[in-house]
Amino acid sequence: MSLQDVGAALRRVEAVLRRRPETGRHEDAPAAAHWQGGTKVVTRHANGTEVNTDMAPELGGNGGHVTPGWLFRAGLASCATTSIAFAAASEDILLTALEVSAHSRSDTRGILGLADADGTPVYAGPGDLTLVVRIAATGVDATRLHALVEAGLRRSPIPNAVTTATPYALHVEVAGV
Predict the structure, then answer these.
(1) Which residues neighbour 119 within 8 Å (Cβ) at sequence distance 6 or greater?
(2) Global confidence as pTM
(3) 139 and 53, same domain (yes or no)
(4) How far apart are alpha carbons 69 and 76 in whole angstroms?
(5) How far apart, in whole angstroms, are the C-alpha atoms of residue 91 and residue 72?
(6) CATH no. for residue 115?
(7) What is the edge-to-edge ordering of all strands in the sheet holding 50-53?
């Protein structure tokens, strides 16, 4: 599907949502993760797609699959890329290049529950995140493309979840006890 087709589809959806906003609210497809032993996990989507993760050898894994942290960065980069492409399609901008990479720095002590020398627990999540966007469109100046990227990211679900620290609820079900 071309960006023009995407733009037309987005305009149709927008028209429906303006008339009936309640149709935009929905449950997202759950991600169901199943432990496979050791540090291996398979996560499944309702459509049958599976993603395997494992940890690095120094943490007991074999390093044969991506880590959950990489999958987080992949989701962030993929969502940002899609939202920027949506913004371009909505403005009838024909992109010639779009690439987003997500970078982070982490402290492994956090996932081990260790503390700093002063006793403060080390944060288990990434200490910082950086998105690097490479974008081009013939005949569109850098200022407009920069604004397009910012507009796309304001509407991007995963970057928004990160910047607003989306709250979550925890429900624990103990099986077979």
Answers:
(1) none
(2) 0.88
(3) no
(4) 11
(5) 29
(6) 3.30.300.20
(7) 32-37, 40-44, 50-53
Tokens 């910047």 sit on residue: 163
Three-state SS letters, 26-88: CCCCCCEEEEEECCEEEEECCCCCEEEECCCHHHCCCCCCECHHHHHHHHHHHHHHHHHHHHH
In a domain, 173, yes or no: no
Same domain, 110 and 141: yes
Q: Give the domain extent around 110.
A: 67-163
Which residues, including other chains, have CB under 8 Å from residue 133's CB and lie 6 or more apart? 80, 84, 98, 99, 100, 149
Q: Which residue has the tokens 């993929």?
A: 78
**Domain count within the chain:** 2
Question: Does residue 4 sit in helix, strand or coil?
Answer: helix
Q: What is the pLDDT of residues 30-76, one digit of tens each?
A: 999 999 999 999 999 999 999 999 999 999 999 899 999 999 999 99
Task: Give the position of tokens 């496979």.
Answer: 36
